[in-house]
Amino acid sequence: MITIAVDAMGGDHAPRPEVEGAVAQIMTFLTENEFAALYVPARFIPRIHPHYREVVEVLAMQVVDEARHAEAFTRRAEAGGAGLGTTATSGQLSLKTLLEEPDFTTAAFLLCVMGEGTFLTLLKFLGEHAPDPVTSALAKLAHRDEARHVAFGMEHLRYVLEREPERKTAMVAAVERRSRMLASISGLSPYVHDALVVMAGGGVSVAQIRAGARHVSDLHREMDRARRERLQSLGFDVETAAQMSEYHTKNFM
Ligand SMILES: [Fe+2]
Ligand SMILES: [Fe+2]
Questions:
Q1: To bridge 131 with a disulfide, which of 15, 71, 107, 214 should be the other Cys (CB 3.0-4.6 Å)?
Q2: Closest CA to 197 of 183, 178, 211
Q3: Distance between Cα 206 and ligand 1 center (Å)
Q4: Which of 156, 158, 164, 140 lies closest to 58 in space, CA to CA?
Q5: From the CA of 144, how far away is ligand 1's center (Å)?
Q6: Would you give the distance in Å from CA 202 to the centre of its chain?
Q7: In contact, 248 and 114? CB cutoff 8 Å
Q8: Residues flanking ion ligand 2, Cβ below 5 Å
């Protein structure tokens, strides 16, 4: 359960305006991704026979978690006075390709394994680099929820791929297809990238930007490493896992 204690951000812990602006921009990015993570399982719930009630219940809980995350991240953006930031067309396009996936297993793979898996690394990073204890707690609590969503996706994929190993090809194709559709996106939205740099560096001086940029490039490397590890644990060979991780959307989700 996430509850924001706005008071905890005041006093000694209140971030400086440029860092607060960066946090608000990151919260905006998270919120928009939370909605995509909410819409995907929600779309499939009415299509599942009640005989598989546990699956319906898990997906319903996932929807609740994402709604809570979106609420908490929006409130955090507003609590410091900066308010919601900018959403980029590139991010919207990336999330649209996720929403359009008609097959449940492919959608669970793209969302829970590739997307939310990448978000686990991002939330851990935010928990470590947040400028105030409230933001850090939010990231850590959301990380705990996301770990459940990733675990569900991993176990679903493990189950399917053990029984139908030929479906691995379809997962590779789905990642490639998504990458082709997003070919016009050169990288992470500059709004989000710059905000991560300012937040992780702790400000906008040359030394802080340099430190922040180093942290963010480490973040990208760690995201790639964790994705490859997950893919290999699902039975993809080293080269295929590396290629799929490389193809994964620059939007993270
Ligand atoms: Fe979430
Ligand atoms: Fe999630």
A1: 15
A2: 211
A3: 33
A4: 156
A5: 10
A6: 22
A7: yes
A8: 37, 116, 146, 149
Give per-10-residue mean pLDDT for the chain (253 aa): 50 81 98 95 96 96 98 96 90 88 96 97 98 97 98 98 97 93 83 97 98 98 98 98 93 90
Amino acid in the structure at residue 235: G
Cα(73) to centroid of ligand 2, in Å? 13
DSSP per position, the chain = -----GGGGSGGGPPPHHHHHHHHHHHHHHHHHHHHHHHHHHHHGGGS-GGGHHHHHHHHHHHHHHHHHHHHHHHHHHHTS-------HHHHHHHHHHHT---HHHHHIIIIIIIHHHHHHHHHHHHHH-SSHHHHHHHHHHHHHHHHHHHHHHHHHHHHHHH-GGGHHHHHHHHHHHHHHTTT--SS-HHHHHHHHHHHHTSSSHHHHHHHHHHHHHHHHHHHHHHHHHHHHTT--HHHHHHHHHHS-TT--
**Cα-to-centroid distance, 67 and ligand 1 (Å):** 8
- pLDDT tens readout for residues 73-109: 999 999 999 999 999 888 888 888 899 999 999 999 9
